[in-house]
Write a structure and sequence with these properties.
By secondary structure, the protein is of the alpha+beta class. The chain is built from 17 helices and 24 strands. It has a 22-stranded mixed β-sheet. The chain has a two-stranded antiparallel sheet with strand order 3-8. β16 and β17 form a beta hairpin. α11 runs antiparallel to α12. The radius of gyration is 32 Å and the shape is elongated.
């Protein structure tokens, strides 16, 4: 953990969570050894202080407390010559830096929900510089850029770009800037592009706005512009065309504020450093929190990865779960029903009443009735049960309206016999045209999801028996409709069975609720403390992997393997989901995560469903690497999984889930395509018996259950 805390602290300087990048930054600081040693001393003292005082270990390991210590250390090594007195006093100020960092980080987070950035470093360094004015024998360095002769043929514009990167960690070395730029390129193509764009634009604007100071301020403006672009264009705000525009605007502001702070601090001993970066980023992020609409310029709301990973995660979460609601309503009936009129239907679902459905029952010929259809009893849906979609309190009941003869309508009592249920949180549902003799409920009765509230009839404006169903926002019978999805259901269309989640039944389709199959439910009904052992093989390699089901502080279940890789579970009563995965991409858990990404807890032969994958969850390709240079504007590769329950063999009691993942290019990459596939086998005892996966390079991974101590 101690080594991790050091490497992650260095990585934090460039908004990264990669150990290798931290190691690269650490090595770059040692191109000027005194500066490097002081930075290393800074992170060691900061992290040791945090550990001794029992601060949160996870935050220590992440570099949360260490990176400001690094910046203080390298700044002191950059500006001052060491002496015996300095060696005595610097550790004291490193401890002071830690406390300032802890106070500012936690205060800004608690009071304003803001990061501390490098503000603690600036405060502590200013205190240190002013304190040293009490001593007249402190010698100041006059460091020149080292190794410049190696790059003498570089244009000044390019050299200043590398100098700007190098001075972020106070390295007077063009070579250090080259090393850091390579690290940034490997870590994030988005940040690499932003560094070039922001630096180039800042140089142009500086020449235009402050021509007299352009040479003096070029590098100061450059590294403030780069850091600001990183924060606002890809790290604290997710990459997008608008965040890119924000980078352009903020670069202009960087030039202005650098000129302002330069004049303000002129004549003092205090260096400008990263004041513009901190001021602009903190004020911008804070002001964006007061918007009425938060859907554009999305602020980071989860543990950060690279900008690419953050964007992929956000898009994936939005595609998969954005329509998920607090409520999980079911269709208001049992068995299969036909949607004779859907949202914005052909007949009566118009204007304020467009978000509604009419349901009937049809036979294999798509006919609603037997015989000649002149009698109510000829209709298959007549007198079939109508159920409550959710728990709730009955708030309105109309139950005295007689059924119409077939073909007649009652325009005076338009909605017919109706039950309106209050489900809480402002959501109501209404089922209309019910049979008058079958509604036994009265106002203030409480019903549960699936309870029968009446039978299908033909009352009100209803020429033939059917259920009219709608969600609404008041208890008024016949009020305007409200667009709200059904949680989980199966839709039959063109001889295909498709499982849908938080969606809207389509007109002219046959729909039914998901009925949980006990064997499938048992296989995916993972519980806290369950332990599973698997025998795995890939190529000629075999190994044993162990899983355990655990729970985090948010009561979210996850599976952890013996290598501490984790797959997080989102389990509803009808569908199993994996929400995200953390770890390497060679374990059994990773392959199971891909295969069991979404599983309806039911069984129908040839039932199909789809889901969207995040590209960061899949093994990388060189094409993906190249497209990420333009990721702020467009995602050129999409990944979709197609799932299917195979028909069961008559001789076998096993269930097989088949999965195919397709990576498809878009735009100029529309011909790009890669495919992965696999399947899961569930035995008759409700255990995941085995699974295999074939990746895009045709490499096959196999896993077989050996022990399972879950019930």
């Amino acid at each position: 953990m101690f080594i991790d805390s050091i490497l992650y602290s260095y990585a934090q300087i460039f908004f990264s969570n990669r150990r290798w990048l931290g190691a690269l930054v650490l090595s770059a600081t040692f191109l000027f050894p005194i500066v490097g040693l002081m930075g290393l001393l800074g992170v060691i003292i900061a992290n040791l202080t945090a550990a001794i005082l029992k601060f949160d270990q996870a935050k220590i390991k992440s570099g949360f407390y260490g990176f400001n210590g690094i910046l203080f250390g390298v700044a002191v090594g950059y500006y001052y010559e060491l002496s015996f007195f300095m060696i005595l006093i610097i550790p004291v100020f490193l401890i002071i830096t830690f406390f300032i960092s802890a106070v500012l980080e936690h205060y800004l987070a608690a009071a304003f929900n803001l990061p501390g950035l490098s503000l603690p470093f600036i405060v502590s360094l200013y205190i240190f510089i002013i304190f040293l004015t009490n001593y007249g024998d402190i010698h100041v360095h006059h460091l020149n850029f080292q190794y410049d002769t190696l790059f003498s043929n570089f244009p000044i514009f390019i050299k200043n770009y590398f100098k700007s990167l190098a001075l972020i960690v106070f390295q007077p070395s063009v070579f250090a800037g080259i090393i850091l730029s390579i690290g940034i390129l490997i870590f994030s193509r988005v940040l690499f592009v932003l560094s070039i764009v922001s630096y180039s634009l800042s140089a142009i604007l500086l020449t235009f706005l402050l021509p007299a100071q352009s040479e003096q301020l070029a590098i100061l403006v450059g590294f403030n512009a780069i850091l600001t672009a990183f924060a606002l264009g890809g790290v604290l705000i997710l990459p997008s065309p608008k965040s890119f525009l924000l980078v352009i605007i903020s670069t202009l502001i960087v030039v202005i504020f650098t000129g302002f702070f330069h004049r303000l601090l002129n004549g003092t001993l205090l260096p400008l450093l990263v004041l513009p970066f901190n001021f602009i980023v903190l004020s911008t992020i804070y002001s964006l929190k007061f918007r009425k609409e938060q859907s554009e310029l999305d602020l980071l709301y989860f543990a950060p990865g690279s900008p690419e990973e953050n964007l992929y995660y956000h898009q994936n979460r939005k595609n998969r779960f954005d329509r998920f609601k607090y409520f999980f309503p079911e269709l208001p009936f049992f068995g299969e029903w036909f949607v004779s009129q859907g949202i914005e239907g052909s007949y009566t679902h118009k204007d304020a009443w467009k978000y509604a459905w009419d349901f009937v029952v049809v036979d294999e010929k798509n006919t609603q009735f037997s015989n000649d259809g002149n009698q109510l009893t000829d209709y298959y849906c007549y007198k079939l049960p109508v159920s409550s979609p959710l728990d709730g309190k009955v708030v309105k009941v109309a139950s005295s309206i007689p059924n119409n003869e077939v073909g007649d309508v009652n325009l005076d009592k338009n909605w017919g016999n109706t039950v309106v249920i209050d489900h809480g949180e402002g959501l109501f549902s209404a089922a209309s045209h019910l049979d008058s003799e079958t509604i036994k409920l009265k106002e203030n009765d409480y019903v549960l999801k699936g309870d029968v509230i009446g039978l299908c009839g033909n009352s009100g404006r209803s020429p033939y028996p059917h259920i009219h169903f709608q969600f609404q926002l008041t208890d008024k019978i016949g009020d305007k409709t409200y667009r709200f999805p059904f949680a989980h259901f199966i839709e039959k269309r063109n001889d295909k069975l498709i499982a849908k989640s938080f969606d809207y039944p389509d007109e002219n389709s046959i729909v039914q609720n998901i009925v949980v199959h006990k064997t499938i439910k048992k296989a995916f009904g993972l519980r806290l403390g369950d332990k599973i052992t698997l025998q795995c093989s890939v190529k000629d390699k075999t190994f044993v992997e162990e899983w355990e089901v655990k729970v985090d502080i948010y009561n979210m279940l996850y599976i952890e393997n013996n290598n501490h890789e984790t797959a997080f579970i989102y389990l509803t009563d009808k569908v199993f989901y994996f929400s995200h995965y953390l770890g390497g991409k060679s374990s059994a858990l990773y392959h199971f995560f891909l295969l069991a990404y979404q599983v309806p807890l039911c069984y129908h032969a040839n039932l199909e469903w789809k889901d969207q994958y995040s590209l960061s969850q899949l093994t990388g390709t060189s094409i993906r690497f190249l497209t990420e240079f333009f990721l702020s504007f467009k995602n050129f590769i999409l990944a979709e999984g197609s799932f299917k329950y195979l028909e069961r063999d008559e001789k076998s009691d096993s269930f097989i889930i088949q999965n195919k993942i397709e990576l498809n290019g878009a735009g100029i990459l529309k011909t790009f395509k890669k495919t992965m596939s696999g399947q899961i086998t569930i035995n008759g005892d409700g255990e995941i018996e085995s699974f295999h996966f074939i990746n895009a390079n045709n490499l096959k991974f196999n896993a077989t259950l050996t022990t399972n101590n879950g019930d």
